[in-house]
Amino acid sequence: MYKKGFVSSYFLYILIIFFILLSIFFIKLQLKIKTIYNIGIANEYLIQEIVVLDFIKCKLLNNDFESGIYSVSNIHFYAEKKEDIIYVEIFSEREENLIIYLSNNNDYYEIKDYHSSTYESLGLKSLTNLSNSLK
Predict the structure, then answer these.
(1) β-sheet with 75-82: strand ranges across
(2) Is 80 helix (H, G, I), strand (E, B) or coil?
């Protein structure tokens, strides 16, 4: 006698479960897309860092490093040396700051370590603010 109502509620439960599973699938897909996008951005930063670090390393090995604005492989940056630290501000599509720590071997400087950061993560506007905040 009440079969029509039973079939309708049964179909409704299946429909709700289907939409829940479908939404879970799309949420996972969206997270994967965000992950791939973030990996792409991280690779862009890494390539930029490699180019700048290789250029500075070459200049340091030749004892030819001077503070100033440089352009290498379409990456523009300002580098300033203070004692055993080089502050680098990159002006490319992905703006970034590098702090390069040097070790002084008798004849030349060598890169010991470096840290990178973006302006947004530091809440800063320029390299001047960065170097003043590290003092």
Answers:
(1) 68-72, 75-82, 85-90, 96-104, 109-117
(2) strand
Q: Residue 98 sits in which domain range? A: 3-133
- So what's the pLDDT on residue 17? 96
pLDDT tens-digit series, residues 3-17: 566 667 888 899 999
Longest Cα–Cα distance in the chain: 98
Q: Mean pLDDT across the stretch 85-91? A: 91
- Mean pLDDT within 108-132: 62
Q: Tell whether the model's pLDDT for residue 77 goes beyond 70.
A: yes
Q: What is the pLDDT of residues 16-27, one digit of tens each?
A: 999 999 999 999
Residue in the block written with tokens 């490093």: 65
Nearest to 88, CA basis, from 104, 74, 70, 103: 70
CATH code, domain with 126 = 3.30.1300
State phi, psi for 74 to the nearest 5 degrees. Answer: 65, 25
| Ranges assigned E (strand) in the chain | 68-72, 75-82, 85-90, 96-104, 109-117
Number of domains in the chain: 1
